[in-house]
Amino acid sequence: MRKNLNLRSLRMYHKGRFFIYDVNGFNMASESFSWYLHKYLLEQDVTNISGKFYRPCAGDVVLDIGAGLGEETCIYADLVSPKGAVYAVEANPMVYEVLQEVIKLNNFTNVHLFNIAISEQQELVRIDDAPDTYLASSLNNVKKGTIYEVQGLPLHEFCSFYNIHQIDLLKVNIEGAERYLATAFERPELDIRHVAISCHNFRFTKEGNEFFRTKALVSDYLKRNGYAIISQCTGTDYIDDWVYGTKMR
């Protein structure tokens, strides 16, 4: 496949920390110089991880919390087509800037972007920039480096404010803050049909920070609210910590 790739443009952001590649007309961002990157790899990640047990389709509404650089957001936008919508939430302001540019370059009119944090209550929250990799940025690991203050909102308040009532897929990857989502599933006005939530017990194992031990908490609040849940057993810790759920009707 690589010999058929056409790198049409390369953009660099924040002094070489982030890159956006236009490969065969599709723009993708990365935190490293990764010329191997192309759309098929992003599609495979969605197929194997966040979309493993529910793959969005035309007309769906996807809520992507912890959208990062848009790696999954861009694939969701294609899958739901102009008939659907993707609501992409990213707390880290520096990462959010790149996400905005990716969506703009791809001309996705069905993607709605929000630079906020999903948190326990409505308040300003602090998030670290995690200089080794943006993927490690957390609301509860603020120790050194650049610290941002961003608006925090509970998930149910975010959905109410933006008039979101039906979510076909809720994808979450927010480094421990998934523990704050429980009350959203108790709201009768919110119809969340499928979930794919990245839990972070693997970070607890490595770092000893209790904030990241969330798999049992997430499993419990999903089951308590009528979801059939499942996880993978791949042998890769960060993949096997994902919890998937489907609302039983």
From TrEMBL:
Pfam families: Methyltransf_21. InterPro entries: FkbM_Methyltransferase, FkbM_mtfrase, SAM-dependent_MTases_sf. Gene3D superfamilies: Vaccinia Virus protein VP39. SUPFAM superfamilies: S-adenosyl-L-methionine-dependent methyltransferases. Residues 64-212 form the Methyltransferase FkbM domain. Keywords: Methyltransferase, Transferase. The keyword Methyltransferase applies. It comes from the Bacteria. One of its GO terms (biological process) is methylation. GO terms for molecular function: O-methyltransferase activity. This is Methyltransferase, FkbM family. It comes from Hymenobacter gelipurpurascens. The lineage of its organism: Bacteria, Pseudomonadati, Bacteroidota, Cytophagia, Cytophagales.
